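Archive entry. Fields below.
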Amino acid sequence: MGKRVLTVDDSKTMRDMVRFTLSGAGFEVVEAEDGVKALSLLDGTRVDLIITDINMPNMDGVTLVKRVRAGTSHRSIPILILTTEGGDQKKAEGRAAGATGWIVKPFAPDKLLQVVNKVCPAG
Amino acid sequence: MSSDRPDTDEFAQFRQTFFEECAELLAALDEHLTDLQERAADTEELNAIFRAVHSIKAGAGAFNFTRLVAFSHTYEALLDALRDGRVHQGEVITSALVRAADVLASLVEAAQEKRELAADFGVAEEEELRALLTEAGLVGKVEGAGKETSPADAATVQADAAAAPAEASARYSIRFAPHPELFRHANEPLLLIRELMRLGTVTLTCDTARLPSLATIEPEDAYLAWNIEIETASPLAELHEVFEFVDEDCDLVIAALEPGCETGAADADAAAEPPAPSIGADDEAASPPDDRPAPQGSVPRGSVPQAPASQALASSEPAQAEAGPAASSQKSAGVTSIRVELARVDRLVNVVGELIIAQSMLVQQPPSEGSDMPPLAATQGFDEIATLTRELQECVMAIRMQPVKSVFARMPRMVRDISARLGKKVRLVTAGEQTEVDKTVIEELADPLTHMIRNAVDHGIEPPDVRKANGKPELGTIRLAASHAGGNILIEVTDDGAGISREKLLAKAVEKRIVSPEAKLSEDEIDDLIFAPGFSTAATVSDVSGRGVGMDVVRRNIINLGGRISMRSKAGKGTRFTLSIPLTLAVLDGMLVAVGREKYILPLTSIVESFKPEQAHVRALTGGGEVVFIRGEYIRLIHLSRIFGVREAVPEAWNGLVVLVESANNSKIGIVVDELIGQQQVVIKSLHDNFEPIPGISGATILGDGRVSLILDVEQLRRMPDRSAGMPQVPVPTSAPTPVLARAGDAHPSHPEPEAPMAALA
Amino acid sequence: MTATEETSMPAVQGDGGQASGKPEHLVRPPRQFISFRVDNEEFAIDIISVREIKGWTSTATLPNQPPYNRGVMNLRGTIVPIFDLRCRFGMGMTEASAFHVVIIASVMDRTIGLLVDAVSDILTVDGQDIRPVPDTEHAASASYLAGIVTTKSGMVIVLSLEKLFGREQMTMNGEIAA
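PREDICTED_STRUCTURE:
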């Protein structure tokens, strides 16, 4: 079975790009628009990797990471946060919350794939 | 710069999505900023503003819109400072943000249209933002970030530069000792090692020294460490990058070994195939994380086969190649997709489900025996299908319905733009933004509304000094309001500006020879003069409203939407335009009328009344044409049978019915038909998909019996010449001369037998 | 046949528009046509342009059109104009009944219907068996005649729908009629 990646971003463009890049590499991609929707989707769904934006309405990415790590069922899922350049502070916040790694926006497809493969290979 | 990152072209197919999203984000930004101008915003609102700019920047980065990225970066920095309180809200900040939003919108537009803007475009605004940050003592940070237009570029360049001289391979020893808490971030040492293997030849030993006894093992802790030797052509930085995510969670030492001169045959062999598993192997890496116990890495695992990752990369290529042409064929302009609330789609699915159930119930009905009456259940079944079909129609229509907000949201920026240019003070108040209307109508509304509001700022609202002198507040108000009224959406554009007096309107129209000086016009007719072609009320032609496009164009746009527009104005008080447009272009409330054996649909909105005229009240005019006298008014009569050449229709108006219709400028005409059949909602079908437009006909529809009926275009009918004069009311004989026949007529037989095809055809 | 001795005359292809100067000895691939009857004459059109064949149903008349335009018909929700071929060829109006046939065809980018008496056959014809229409002084008016095929049952005239009912053509006729 292919790995399933959850991309969490309020921007459809970003979600589309992640989906495009990863589904082309054999991942199954599911989407959520914000942290709240991501959590409800995680409830009862197998997900192998979460890629989340930081700035989102309703629940931001850092909170999402915290909530996932605090739960029981999904806490060992790798989580990548999407940061922008100069976002060292956000990177640190994300790490402290339990993020596995980060991807700097804007990203090229192969860069995204490389990072994803580092934490969750397509298998 | 862009040449450094050709790979972003793979994302070109998402440009359309990006610009659609930008439009939404800019509208949201505008809306929030408008609120911000009125009152201080709370954190959530500031966050929303920040997110809008942030999302635009992120997307712009992906498509290499460097100017857009650079500007939004500075913009974002100020917003970021604003939301966490390092900069305080205030009028100066707000107006800078508003201006910046306008620049941002222009930059997005330029990017979408692939247009180059002047080099200094937006520079002043960006300086202003930066100045505000400087004031708050935050400038250092911004300038640092602002200069690197695209960090990805920088990173790539750096990597390339480093890679160039390091063509020869080097050997490194790596000591990688994860801290016990490494797993808490879901990092996986084996995957990192696998990454290393992609960079070069790896020799690996696992250090199990820290592994405690099974009894004391902490399942979620990492105990293993690795000593790695790698021979690689990659620079040291790339090795470090592999461990980028874990460098705080491990002890990592990477040291260069002796210079990479001894690349022996054995090593080459090793490079050709993955190294043999050095530790007990099962293929854990491929299984999903949920299946494995959390402390996976604490138990020794094998090295990971190399194949999957390279396969993954390879398989991504065809998909990307396919995406190329699709992306290029996509049109860059215009919104072609809509977002629909899930609830509406769900409702649609539900109705369809019920329809299927109802249908299968009907199918399972036993055939009625002996009786002409259908069984009760069947009748009920048909009733239900009728109900569900209506509901289905509503559901589908609802999917196309969108709030007018998206159009309204474009207006504040324009009002700001124009009023600033004209030195006027104008406030735009909107109401009823949530009023929904068909998506196509929304798109068609943008132009007329833009034009009307531009006019209102330009010609309606007076300059501040004039307003002050007239005892009005300096700040002029334009109100844009939408509401539902029956099957129509009602939009009002009201300004509290100078207004137009009827006397002035009429005088102007006479001067422009739109009406004759002797004409006796009703008040409504005078008001309608503003929509007459060639009419402009501005004293001078300004660069804002310009010349050429007038309210006549606005009216034509509205009429094309099947709507109407009217104007009321009071000198000194202001002007109000009222638009009424059907909610959807796909369905029309119509009156089915019969003329001879033909049936036509008249749009219900245009019908005033219908009556049977008395013969004495119908008068033929010299020079053709006919009028009917009703309630003190003479109304021009149009015989559909005559202008359309329909046979077997009633010959005179008093034998049939006159349907009084009102065309766009409130002028009435009487349409003579044989009879009214009834009112019904019809689905509008295009006629010119397969045929040319026909004067007097706006489209077609399909009646309940499957026959086609033509939809009449009242506005065009009004202008069509009455061809009745001299036209015989006899069936057109098949031998009547027609262009085709005329051509056939001067043929001469080129075949011996007269009845043969060539004779008929030549 | 009267004028076929002019062997140098270019062959006219079924689509009418591409009369090429290629020598005739080149073997052309076989083509398929649908043949139909109008007023005891046999005509054929390229099968590629035929979408479907259905019986005549009454139409809504379009105002102020040439008489061969018989109005529009509902084809599963699409409004399709119907042309009376008999009338188009100047042989009088067809007294359409349920026994008459409408051939739904695609011409350029649109769908039209041809009212004919009956559909006869599907013809498979070798390219070189499509003979050019003899040149007459009135070649222009007969430009919609794409060729002639001789079959067992007689002579069949191949029509060019593009020339007959192409967009330009219809506009022109419409204007003349209006």
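CURATOR_NOTE: The longest helix of chain A spans residues 12-23.
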